[in-house]
Amino acid sequence: METATTESIRVQSLSQSGLSHVPPQFIQPLHTRPIPNNPSSTTIPIIDLFGFDPIHRNSTRDSIARACNEWGAFYVTNHGVPVTLLDDIRRVGSTFFNDCSMPVKLRYACNSGAAATEGYGSRMLVSSDEQNDGVQVLDWRDYFDHHTLPLSRRNPNNWPDFPSDYRKTVANYSDEMNVLAKKLLALISESLGLNPSCIEDSVGEFYQNITMSYYPPCPEPELTLGLQSHSDMGAITLLIQDDVSGLQVVNNSDGGWVIVKPVSDAVLVILADQTEIITNGKYRSCEHRAITNPDRARFSVATFHDPAKTAKISPASDLINELSPAKYQDVVYGDYVLSWYTKGPEGKRNLDALVLES
Ligand code: OGA
Ligand code: NI
Q: Region entry Disordered: which residue ranges (predicted)?
């Protein structure tokens, strides 16, 4: 149980207090520590969408198929979202974390007792790791979660009003990301020979959340993670970051971690678990994590597109036949979310639990 005191503690205040060691609850067990491996020369693909110009559609679709097969994550450029809007959301978000006092920020504190509530918080992913005697390890991260779609969930009064264009910017960004996510799911569906609306129809109306993450400088980056290893729960995540590296994805060819270098103006696409189920495992969700560094705070904005809690998700019927039977159990999305929050993500454990024996 969290107490009133820990409720008001944020990682940023710990970092600013000038500790030279991280508190024990942030120390990862040996097997999850980010031991620096040889800097890999591999990088995830950068795909030019040419503004979705039909002339380029065949080649774009082929690049997407390759990227989804190899990584489950890729950058897109010429995506149609104004670059000024990407800069604006980075600016308003960083201003909230960097320039508001802690008491002002805590006015927006989320209810840490419940999963995924809207607002300013510090713990979201909690693993109770059997190999670590059930001890919970905390992420070196603060976040602000915004509920943005459907519109019935969007209440900008719950969001900061400083800087003055904060609320307007988040609302515009939500709308633009919604459009981009739909266009990308259409290309991803087509890249599997499916009808363009196939994945979107399976997901149903998008439940969209925008999570801004703030990773303060950490005195012992080799012992901690900004965000523990996980795959995202929903259908598709669109992420932008500042110029500080820290995000890593698993390289499917050797299982090692590869840093996702920031690419200014590009949007990172991350396939999430429901897309793996809908595509019957043809495309796997991408396992990722964030590491910390001692020098500079890092800022990112992740936009999640999820099914409704009541939606039942199953492999697309067009991909199932006698030779290629369903590989995943059907799941009610709300049940999936609940298991994720009760057990913790621990890589892709929750999705693995739905895999049918062949
Ligand atoms: C997430 C996530 C990565 C990052 O919020 O699910 O993976 O770089 N974020 O902040
Ligand atoms: Ni994630």
A: 1-20
All domains of the chain in start order, with CATH: 11-307 (2.60.120.330)
CA of 320 to the centre of ligand 1 (A): 32
Taking CA atoms, 58 is separated from 91, 266, 273, in Å, by: 36, 21, 26
- Tokens describing residue 24: 């024990």
CA dihedral 150, 171, 154, 188 (to 10 degrees): 30
- Distance, in Å, from the CA atom of 71 to the CA atom of 231, rounded to the nearest integer, reads 12
Residue 217 has what pLDDT? 97
Percent of the chain that is helix, strand, coil (3-state, to 5): 35, 20, 45
| Cβ-contact 102, 72 below 8 angstroms | no
Q: From ligand 2's centre to the CA of 134, what distance in Å?
A: 23
Report the predicted TM-score, pTM, of the whole model to 2 decimal places: 0.95
The mean per-residue pLDDT over the stretch 184-202 comes to: 98
In sequence order, the 6+-apart residues with CB closer than 8 A to the CB of 177 are 81, 208, 210, 238, 303, 305
Average pLDDT, the chain: 92
Ligand 1 geometric centre to CA of 55 (Å): 33
Identity of the amino acid at 211: T
Residue to mutate (ligand 1; options 227, 249, 267; most atoms within 8 A of CB): 227
